[in-house]
Amino acid sequence: MANLRTLAERQAAQPAFGSGHSLCRGCGIPLVVRTVLASIRTPVAVINATGCLEVASTRYPFTAWSVPWLHVAFENAAAVASGVETAYRALRRRGALRHDFTFVVFAGDGGTYDIGLQALSGALERGHRFLYVCYDNEGYMNTGVQRSGATPRGANTTTTPSGATSTGKAESRKNLTEIVLAHRIPYVAQAAISHLQDLSDKVERATHSEGPAFLNVLSACPPGWGYEPRDTIAVVQHAVNSGYWPLLEVIEGHWRLTVHPEPRESVGDWFGLQKRFRHLFDIVDMDLLAGLEETTAAEWRRLEELEARDRDWFISSHGQKWGLSG
Questions:
Q1: Cα(207)–Cα(246) distance, rounded to whole angstroms?
Q2: E strands of the chain, at which residues?
Q3: What are the percentages of helix, strand and coil residues in the chain, rounded to 5?
Q4: Could you list the residue range(s) of the whole structural domain that residue 128 is in?
Q5: Is residue 326 part of a domain?
Q6: Closest by alpha carbon to 174, among 220, 219, 236, 112?
Q7: What CATH number is attached to the domain comprising 146?
Q8: For 68-77, how does the pLDDT look when each residue is reduced to its tens digit (9 = 90+)?
Q9: 8-state DSSP, 17
Q10: Containing H/E element for 206?
Q11: Closest CA to 44 of 1, 106, 100, 96
Q12: 58 in any annotated domain
């Protein structure tokens, strides 16, 4: 017990994720990690899949972490979190631990949308109580900007190069948020580094859910997306304002948009800020760009319909239980 109290005091006294990392200038990942961990009131333990965050935060003999931290492989972060959470519950039943603890998984889109999807699905289906945070920078950035299941259609990457016979990635991005929703867990949300208060509020609700919680957070990657590091927040802000990345949460199956950009910007405005989409503005690729615009608009209308359907739920006692009133 003394060790746990010491841990709680130490975590309260210093940032859970501080200096000492070597993430790129303008990288959105530190904003995700610091906001998430600063929004949790209990002691935390972090399970970190291989990726940019892991590689850049623990270069021997330095570390940016001041909390218990476990590095695991690309594919098994959710499985390891399941085991850690199960052991914790067993110790609580025996009376060996009496304090609340929050388990947080951090993984990129490569380790979530693709390589780690099987382990994530199994953990969600079993109902392990942890917060899974995907920092989504839309590609395998740590290994050279290869396409992932999160990479948007039309993006230029090293494995989907644009050119005379290609307009970049041919496939649409995977809708991971709704794949997670299919597991019927209590709390699922999308957030972005351009709206940190929104992210913090969602972390607080996520950690109070009775079961698994999932946050898909749009991060940013200056070298992978192709923009100046100083423009990180502005670039992500355009993704939100265009409706490309809706900020939403789904609580016990009920939908709510947490930000309503008015008026919505063009998706082309967001694409135009990044070198990976520059080829789409050539005359031969304008049809693809127009198609992406139409798809985004149709998806936004669908989300508004879902929100309207569930509005009464959020203003009832159900919403009040989650600290919401509408």
A1: 21
A2: 44-49, 69-72, 102-108, 131-136, 162-163, 166-167, 187-192, 213-218, 248-251, 254-257
A3: 45, 15, 40
A4: 2-321
A5: no
A6: 112
A7: 3.40.50.970
A8: 999 999 999 9
A9: B
A10: helix 196-207
A11: 100
A12: yes
